[in-house]
Structures are given as C-alpha cells and as structure tokens.
Design a protein that fits this description.
By secondary structure, this protein is an alpha+beta fold. It contains four helices and ten strands.
Length: 204
Amino acid sequence: MTEAPVQEASPASSGYGTAVALQLEPTITRSEAEQVVRRRLGGGTAAARLVHHPFWLVEVTARRIPGLLARLRSSRRASAGTPAAEVNPEQTAASTITVMVDAKGGTSFISSVPVVGDRVPTPFALFGEEPAGAVSDTARQLVATALRKRFRLGMSFELSTATPQPIMKPNWVVDATGKDIEATVLVDGFDSSYWVMSAAKLSA
C-alpha cells in the first residue's frame, strides 16, 4: 500500500501562551473507577479524583486510489459510454479516522471515544514543542500502518490530515487501601483500563 500525504497547518490559539483545548468528558464515572480498583485489591476503600492529560486530536481522511487494473477497467467503461459517476465509484469513497497523539510522550492510537466536552483555555506549554506537522505525520503513519494490515498489498490510499486540535483526555487517579496494601492507580476515563502508579505493602 502507498499513501500520498496532504498536510495542513498549526492549531488555533487564544493568545500568547494558551490554547483553547477541548476538555473531554469521561464515560467512566467516579464510582466505576473506584470499583475497578477495589476489585483489583480484593476490597478496601478507594477515592478517585479526575485529571486530564494533553493530547492532540487529528482526523485523517483516507481516500482509496484505484489500482492499475481498476483504472484500465474504468477507461474501458468510459470508452463504452458508461456515465462518469458509474465508471469508478471507489475513486471517491473515503473514510475519516480519528487519531489521538499524546502531547507529552508522543505515543498515538486510533480512537473512537466521544469527542464531547467544553473548550477551556489551557497553558500551551502542556502540549510541548512538537510542531503541528510532526503531530500530523505521526497520525498519518499510524493510519497508513493500520491500512496496510487490513488491505491487500498494492492497494493505494491518499491520506490527508486536518489541523491537529488540542484536547484534554480524562482519567481517574484512584488512591486505595486494601487489606495489606496501599496503591495509587490511574484508570482510563473511557474504557476503565488501568495502570498502577505506585503501591506499597502496609506494615503488620
């Protein structure tokens, strides 16, 4: 698979030093996040607080480019008088994939989370020094890799990226105490996956 990149420019800002970021709303509630950790510890107490992590949201449009055989068939149909709209309907088929790029670590993933929330002024320093072009390249490369895995060799796509948008992704930080352990756990605000940030055994 090959891709023809089309790139756009930098995100809008609300004045020097700040960006207007979309602060997403979690779909996992506070009580659900606490329950995730209590189950992991086998009971005990848990208290969650909401935090947000800076990401770039990039919409990547993938448009399929007909291969050589498809172009030859289209040419024959056109020569035979087939209406233009029916010559190659695949040529205009396109889909949009949403990618989130971690503004701090640079990792990226294809996302289907609801992009719902309020736009809030956010210190632009949270989003690092990486230029919008590099963010777009990261998103485009991720989508290109996913398409190569899904479609057969030789199929081509034109990939274009919208302007990266600053967003704040929600997570829950849960401080919990079990029977013989204290832990701080980060729970994803959308899918309840979790990471242990710190843990310590309690003294007897």
